[in-house]
Hints:
Blueprint: H1 3-26, H2 29-37, H3 41-70, H4 76-98, H5 102-120
Helix pairs in contact: 1-3, 1-5, 2-3, 3-4, 4-5
Amino acid sequence: MTRAQLGSLLTGLAGAGFLGTAALHGTGYDSVTQLAAQGPAELQALMPALWVAFSLDLVVIGLILAVVARRPIPRDRLLLAVAAFSPVGAALLQIRFLGFIPPSAILLALGAFTLTAAVVVPPATRA
C-alpha cells in the first residue's frame, strides 16, 4: 500500500469517525430536550437547536472528508488539519466548561486521528 493509498484510507476512516460521532451525539437529543424543558423559556428551543447544530457540523465535515478520501486534492493535508479543529475545539470547550467527560476523550481521539491522517497524506508536489 502506498502512502497516498494509506492517506486516503485514513481520511475515509476519519470521515466515518465524524459521521459515527455525529450519530452518537444525536442519541442524546431526547435527554437534552427534556432537560431544556425544565430550564428558562429562552433555552427551551435554543438547547435542542444547538445540539442538532453540533451533530450537523460533524456530519458536514465527515462528508467533506469522505469526498476528499475518494477524490484526493493537492491540499489534503491542510484540509485535514483544519477539519481536526472542530472536534479538538469542542473537546477543549467541554473541558473548560464541564470538566473532562467521556465525550471529550472521543472528540480528542477523533481530532488526533484526523491529524494523523494529515501527516500520512503525501505533501502536494510542486509543478
